[in-house]
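Lecture notes, unit on protein representations.

Consider one protein chain, 342 amino acids long.
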Amino acid sequence: MVTSPSPYRREGWGGGPLIMQYKYCGHSGVQLPVLSLGLWHNFGSVDDFSTATQMVVKAFDAGICHFDLANNYGPVPGSAESNFGRILKNNLASHRDEMFISSKAGHQMWEGVYGDGSSRKNIIASCDQSLRRMGLEYVDIFYSHRYDGVTPIEETMQALIDLVRQGKALYVGISKYPPHLQQQCYDILREAHVPCLLSQYRCSMFDPKAQRENFQIAADNGSGIICFSPLAQGLLTGKYDNGIPADSRAAKSTGFLQQSQVTPERVEAARQLGAIAKQRGQSLAQMALAWILKDERVTSCIIGTSSVAQLDNNLATLNNLTFSDDEVTAIKNIIDKPELWF
Protein backbone atom coordinates (compact mmCIF):
# COMPACT_ATOMS: atom_id res chain seq x y z
CA MET A 1 0.00 0.00 0.00
CA VAL A 2 1.55 3.28 -1.13
CA THR A 3 -0.07 6.44 0.10
CA SER A 4 0.53 10.03 -0.84
CA PRO A 5 1.79 12.43 1.84
CA SER A 6 -0.98 14.05 3.84
CA PRO A 7 -0.69 17.48 5.42
CA TYR A 8 -1.28 17.86 9.11
CA ARG A 9 -1.56 21.21 10.82
CA ARG A 10 -0.55 21.70 14.44
CA GLU A 11 0.08 24.76 16.52
CA GLY A 12 3.77 25.33 17.00
CA TRP A 13 5.23 26.44 20.30
CA GLY A 14 5.61 29.88 18.74
CA GLY A 15 1.86 30.01 18.21
CA GLY A 16 1.94 29.92 14.40
CA PRO A 17 0.50 27.12 12.28
CA LEU A 18 3.13 24.72 10.93
CA ILE A 19 2.55 22.12 8.24
CA MET A 20 4.35 18.80 8.00
CA GLN A 21 3.50 16.02 5.57
CA TYR A 22 3.09 12.43 6.77
CA LYS A 23 3.04 9.03 5.10
CA TYR A 24 1.91 5.61 6.29
CA CYS A 25 4.59 3.00 6.98
CA GLY A 26 3.89 0.25 4.48
CA HIS A 27 0.90 -1.87 5.47
CA SER A 28 0.36 -0.27 8.86
CA GLY A 29 -1.60 2.48 10.51
CA VAL A 30 1.55 4.30 11.63
CA GLN A 31 2.35 7.62 9.98
CA LEU A 32 5.77 9.25 9.99
CA PRO A 33 6.77 12.74 8.93
CA VAL A 34 8.44 12.69 5.53
CA LEU A 35 11.44 14.30 7.25
CA SER A 36 12.70 12.69 10.46
CA LEU A 37 15.49 13.95 12.72
CA GLY A 38 18.49 11.69 13.17
CA LEU A 39 20.82 12.00 16.15
CA TRP A 40 23.79 10.13 14.67
CA HIS A 41 25.97 13.25 14.76
CA ASN A 42 25.88 16.54 16.72
CA PHE A 43 23.96 15.30 19.77
CA GLY A 44 26.72 13.56 21.71
CA SER A 45 28.69 14.46 24.80
CA VAL A 46 31.27 16.34 22.68
CA ASP A 47 28.58 18.61 21.21
CA ASP A 48 26.86 21.71 22.55
CA PHE A 49 23.86 20.59 24.59
CA SER A 50 22.04 23.89 24.23
CA THR A 51 22.22 23.68 20.42
CA ALA A 52 21.06 20.05 20.54
CA THR A 53 18.09 21.07 22.67
CA GLN A 54 17.15 23.88 20.32
CA MET A 55 17.25 21.53 17.32
CA VAL A 56 15.10 18.84 18.92
CA VAL A 57 12.51 21.32 20.19
CA LYS A 58 12.43 23.20 16.89
CA ALA A 59 12.04 19.93 14.97
CA PHE A 60 9.11 18.86 17.13
CA ASP A 61 7.64 22.33 16.84
CA ALA A 62 7.78 21.98 13.04
CA GLY A 63 5.93 18.67 13.10
CA ILE A 64 8.90 16.29 13.09
CA CYS A 65 7.67 13.74 15.59
CA HIS A 66 10.09 10.95 14.66
CA PHE A 67 13.54 10.93 16.27
CA ASP A 68 16.02 8.31 15.11
CA LEU A 69 18.68 7.08 17.54
CA ALA A 70 20.89 4.06 18.18
CA ASN A 71 22.72 2.72 21.22
CA ASN A 72 26.15 3.77 19.89
CA TYR A 73 25.31 7.29 18.69
CA GLY A 74 27.48 9.99 20.22
CA PRO A 75 30.36 10.33 20.63
CA VAL A 76 30.85 8.94 23.19
CA PRO A 77 28.66 5.91 22.42
CA GLY A 78 25.38 6.21 24.32
CA SER A 79 25.63 9.94 24.89
CA ALA A 80 23.15 10.89 22.16
CA GLU A 81 20.50 8.82 23.90
CA SER A 82 21.42 10.27 27.29
CA ASN A 83 21.19 13.82 25.93
CA PHE A 84 17.94 13.07 24.15
CA GLY A 85 16.55 11.74 27.43
CA ARG A 86 17.51 14.98 29.18
CA ILE A 87 15.86 17.03 26.44
CA LEU A 88 12.68 14.98 26.70
CA LYS A 89 12.54 15.33 30.47
CA ASN A 90 13.28 19.06 30.51
CA ASN A 91 11.32 20.23 27.47
CA LEU A 92 8.96 17.64 26.01
CA ALA A 93 7.90 15.32 28.82
CA SER A 94 4.19 15.92 28.31
CA HIS A 95 4.47 15.14 24.58
CA ARG A 96 5.76 11.54 24.70
CA ASP A 97 2.63 10.11 23.09
CA GLU A 98 3.00 12.54 20.19
CA MET A 99 6.49 11.23 19.40
CA PHE A 100 7.86 8.20 17.57
CA ILE A 101 11.26 7.28 19.02
CA SER A 102 13.59 4.65 17.62
CA SER A 103 16.75 2.93 18.73
CA LYS A 104 18.95 0.16 17.36
CA ALA A 105 21.64 -2.35 18.31
CA GLY A 106 24.18 -4.31 16.30
CA HIS A 107 27.36 -2.27 16.02
CA GLN A 108 30.01 -2.21 18.75
CA MET A 109 28.75 -0.48 21.87
CA TRP A 110 30.91 -1.74 24.75
CA GLU A 111 34.09 -3.78 25.15
CA GLY A 112 33.94 -7.55 25.35
CA VAL A 113 32.32 -10.33 23.40
CA TYR A 114 28.74 -9.29 24.20
CA GLY A 115 28.96 -5.62 23.23
CA ASP A 116 28.81 -6.10 19.48
CA GLY A 117 26.88 -8.06 16.88
CA SER A 118 23.32 -9.28 16.42
CA SER A 119 23.01 -11.95 19.10
CA ARG A 120 20.03 -12.17 21.41
CA LYS A 121 22.37 -11.32 24.28
CA ASN A 122 23.43 -8.05 22.67
CA ILE A 123 20.00 -7.06 21.33
CA ILE A 124 18.17 -7.47 24.65
CA ALA A 125 20.89 -5.87 26.80
CA SER A 126 21.26 -2.97 24.39
CA CYS A 127 17.54 -2.22 24.40
CA ASP A 128 17.47 -2.25 28.20
CA GLN A 129 20.42 0.17 28.32
CA SER A 130 18.86 2.47 25.71
CA LEU A 131 15.62 2.69 27.67
CA ARG A 132 17.52 3.62 30.82
CA ARG A 133 19.55 6.28 29.05
CA MET A 134 16.48 7.90 27.53
CA GLY A 135 14.30 7.49 30.60
CA LEU A 136 11.63 5.63 28.62
CA GLU A 137 9.42 2.65 29.37
CA TYR A 138 9.46 1.63 25.70
CA VAL A 139 10.68 2.72 22.28
CA ASP A 140 8.29 2.95 19.39
CA ILE A 141 10.55 0.88 17.17
CA PHE A 142 13.72 -1.10 17.80
CA TYR A 143 15.94 -2.14 14.89
CA SER A 144 18.54 -4.75 14.30
CA HIS A 145 21.17 -2.23 13.17
CA ARG A 146 22.95 -4.64 10.85
CA TYR A 147 23.45 -8.26 9.92
CA ASP A 148 26.72 -9.25 11.58
CA GLY A 149 27.48 -12.14 9.21
CA VAL A 150 27.50 -14.71 12.03
CA THR A 151 24.33 -14.76 14.11
CA PRO A 152 21.50 -16.86 12.64
CA ILE A 153 18.69 -14.64 11.37
CA GLU A 154 16.23 -16.66 13.44
CA GLU A 155 18.03 -15.70 16.67
CA THR A 156 18.12 -11.99 15.89
CA MET A 157 14.50 -11.82 14.73
CA GLN A 158 13.30 -13.77 17.78
CA ALA A 159 15.04 -11.26 20.03
CA LEU A 160 13.17 -8.44 18.28
CA ILE A 161 9.89 -10.34 18.58
CA ASP A 162 10.46 -10.84 22.30
CA LEU A 163 11.16 -7.12 22.82
CA VAL A 164 7.67 -6.41 21.49
CA ARG A 165 6.11 -9.14 23.63
CA GLN A 166 7.91 -7.78 26.68
CA GLY A 167 6.52 -4.29 26.04
CA LYS A 168 9.94 -2.74 25.46
CA ALA A 169 9.19 -1.87 21.82
CA LEU A 170 5.93 -1.32 19.96
CA TYR A 171 7.37 -2.23 16.55
CA VAL A 172 10.56 -3.67 15.06
CA GLY A 173 12.66 -2.99 11.99
CA ILE A 174 15.82 -3.98 10.15
CA SER A 175 18.66 -1.75 9.01
CA LYS A 176 21.13 -2.32 6.16
CA TYR A 177 20.23 -6.00 5.71
CA PRO A 178 21.39 -7.42 2.35
CA PRO A 179 18.65 -8.30 -0.12
CA HIS A 180 19.19 -12.07 0.10
CA LEU A 181 18.31 -11.95 3.83
CA GLN A 182 15.49 -9.39 3.77
CA GLN A 183 12.80 -11.88 2.77
CA GLN A 184 13.84 -14.29 5.51
CA CYS A 185 13.54 -11.53 8.10
CA TYR A 186 10.12 -10.49 6.87
CA ASP A 187 8.86 -14.09 6.82
CA ILE A 188 9.98 -14.84 10.38
CA LEU A 189 8.54 -11.61 11.78
CA ARG A 190 5.25 -11.98 9.90
CA GLU A 191 4.80 -15.56 11.08
CA ALA A 192 5.17 -14.34 14.68
CA HIS A 193 2.57 -11.59 14.03
CA VAL A 194 5.24 -8.93 14.62
CA PRO A 195 5.67 -7.61 11.07
CA CYS A 196 8.63 -5.46 10.08
CA LEU A 197 7.36 -1.89 10.27
CA LEU A 198 10.40 -0.18 8.73
CA SER A 199 13.44 -1.09 6.69
CA GLN A 200 16.25 1.45 6.97
CA TYR A 201 18.81 1.97 4.21
CA ARG A 202 21.43 4.48 3.11
CA CYS A 203 20.32 6.26 -0.03
CA SER A 204 21.21 9.41 -1.94
CA MET A 205 21.68 10.71 -5.48
CA PHE A 206 25.22 9.33 -5.23
CA ASP A 207 24.17 6.09 -3.53
CA PRO A 208 21.30 4.34 -5.36
CA LYS A 209 22.26 0.77 -4.43
CA ALA A 210 19.47 0.19 -1.90
CA GLN A 211 16.94 1.81 -4.20
CA ARG A 212 17.89 -0.70 -6.88
CA GLU A 213 18.28 -3.79 -4.67
CA ASN A 214 16.27 -3.45 -1.44
CA PHE A 215 13.35 -1.08 -1.80
CA GLN A 216 11.02 -3.28 -3.83
CA ILE A 217 11.55 -6.29 -1.58
CA ALA A 218 10.55 -4.14 1.39
CA ALA A 219 7.55 -2.66 -0.41
CA ASP A 220 6.35 -6.08 -1.57
CA ASN A 221 6.37 -7.23 2.06
CA GLY A 222 4.46 -4.24 3.42
CA SER A 223 7.45 -2.65 5.13
CA GLY A 224 7.91 1.08 5.15
CA ILE A 225 11.27 2.42 3.96
CA ILE A 226 13.28 5.09 5.73
CA CYS A 227 16.50 6.50 4.28
CA PHE A 228 19.62 7.86 5.97
CA SER A 229 22.60 9.85 4.65
CA PRO A 230 20.47 11.46 1.89
CA LEU A 231 23.10 14.18 1.41
CA ALA A 232 25.98 11.73 0.94
CA GLN A 233 27.73 12.95 4.10
CA GLY A 234 27.67 16.53 2.82
CA LEU A 235 28.73 15.96 -0.79
CA LEU A 236 25.23 16.97 -1.89
CA THR A 237 25.26 20.33 -0.13
CA GLY A 238 27.74 22.25 -2.29
CA LYS A 239 30.14 22.34 0.68
CA TYR A 240 32.97 20.80 -1.35
CA ASP A 241 32.59 22.82 -4.54
CA ASN A 242 35.78 24.77 -3.83
CA GLY A 243 37.85 22.24 -1.93
CA ILE A 244 37.62 20.50 1.44
CA PRO A 245 36.79 22.93 4.29
CA ALA A 246 38.84 22.51 7.45
CA ASP A 247 35.72 21.95 9.56
CA SER A 248 34.11 19.40 7.22
CA ARG A 249 33.66 15.67 7.79
CA ALA A 250 36.07 14.84 4.98
CA ALA A 251 38.81 16.84 6.73
CA LYS A 252 38.68 14.47 9.73
CA SER A 253 40.67 11.25 9.46
CA THR A 254 38.09 9.46 11.62
CA GLY A 255 35.06 10.67 9.67
CA PHE A 256 32.75 8.48 7.61
CA LEU A 257 33.46 10.62 4.55
CA GLN A 258 37.11 10.31 3.56
CA GLN A 259 39.04 12.79 1.44
CA SER A 260 39.53 10.08 -1.17
CA GLN A 261 35.75 9.98 -1.65
CA VAL A 262 35.57 13.69 -2.53
CA THR A 263 36.46 12.94 -6.14
CA PRO A 264 36.58 15.49 -8.97
CA GLU A 265 33.72 13.62 -10.64
CA ARG A 266 31.46 13.92 -7.59
CA VAL A 267 32.35 17.57 -7.03
CA GLU A 268 31.56 18.40 -10.65
CA ALA A 269 28.28 16.45 -10.51
CA ALA A 270 27.32 18.35 -7.35
CA ARG A 271 28.02 21.66 -9.12
CA GLN A 272 25.79 20.65 -12.03
CA LEU A 273 23.04 19.51 -9.66
CA GLY A 274 23.36 22.76 -7.76
CA ALA A 275 22.60 24.68 -10.94
CA ILE A 276 19.38 22.72 -11.39
CA ALA A 277 18.45 23.27 -7.76
CA LYS A 278 18.96 27.00 -8.16
CA GLN A 279 16.56 27.02 -11.11
CA ARG A 280 14.03 25.24 -8.87
CA GLY A 281 14.46 27.87 -6.17
CA GLN A 282 16.10 25.37 -3.82
CA SER A 283 19.46 24.69 -2.27
CA LEU A 284 21.23 21.54 -3.47
CA ALA A 285 20.53 19.91 -0.11
CA GLN A 286 16.81 20.61 -0.43
CA MET A 287 16.68 19.16 -3.93
CA ALA A 288 18.63 16.08 -2.84
CA LEU A 289 16.09 15.43 -0.06
CA ALA A 290 13.17 15.99 -2.43
CA TRP A 291 14.74 13.53 -4.89
CA ILE A 292 14.70 10.73 -2.30
CA LEU A 293 11.14 11.52 -1.27
CA LYS A 294 10.09 11.41 -4.93
CA ASP A 295 10.18 7.61 -4.68
CA GLU A 296 6.68 6.66 -3.53
CA ARG A 297 8.04 3.61 -1.70
CA VAL A 298 9.95 5.86 0.72
CA THR A 299 8.13 6.68 3.95
CA SER A 300 10.60 9.14 5.44
CA CYS A 301 14.05 10.61 5.01
CA ILE A 302 16.34 11.12 8.02
CA ILE A 303 18.05 14.48 8.21
CA GLY A 304 21.04 15.26 10.40
CA THR A 305 21.60 18.86 11.39
CA SER A 306 24.26 20.81 13.27
CA SER A 307 22.31 24.03 13.82
CA VAL A 308 18.77 25.40 13.89
CA ALA A 309 19.54 27.31 10.69
CA GLN A 310 20.48 24.07 8.95
CA LEU A 311 17.29 22.46 10.24
CA ASP A 312 15.26 25.36 8.87
CA ASN A 313 16.96 24.95 5.50
CA ASN A 314 16.08 21.26 5.39
CA LEU A 315 12.49 21.91 6.42
CA ALA A 316 12.12 24.30 3.49
CA THR A 317 12.45 21.21 1.26
CA LEU A 318 8.71 20.76 1.78
CA ASN A 319 8.04 23.86 -0.31
CA ASN A 320 8.92 21.97 -3.51
CA LEU A 321 8.80 18.18 -3.60
CA THR A 322 7.82 17.72 -7.25
CA PHE A 323 9.97 17.43 -10.35
CA SER A 324 9.11 18.15 -13.96
CA ASP A 325 9.89 15.52 -16.59
CA ASP A 326 12.67 17.73 -17.93
CA GLU A 327 14.20 18.07 -14.46
CA VAL A 328 14.09 14.30 -13.91
CA THR A 329 15.82 13.71 -17.24
CA ALA A 330 18.48 16.34 -16.57
CA ILE A 331 19.22 14.98 -13.09
CA LYS A 332 19.40 11.37 -14.26
CA ASN A 333 21.83 12.38 -16.99
CA ILE A 334 24.11 13.70 -14.25
CA ILE A 335 23.83 10.99 -11.60
CA ASP A 336 23.35 7.77 -13.59
CA LYS A 337 27.09 7.17 -13.67
CA PRO A 338 28.64 4.30 -11.65
CA GLU A 339 31.79 6.33 -10.93
CA LEU A 340 29.69 8.60 -8.72
CA TRP A 341 28.16 5.81 -6.65
CA PHE A 342 29.31 4.71 -3.21
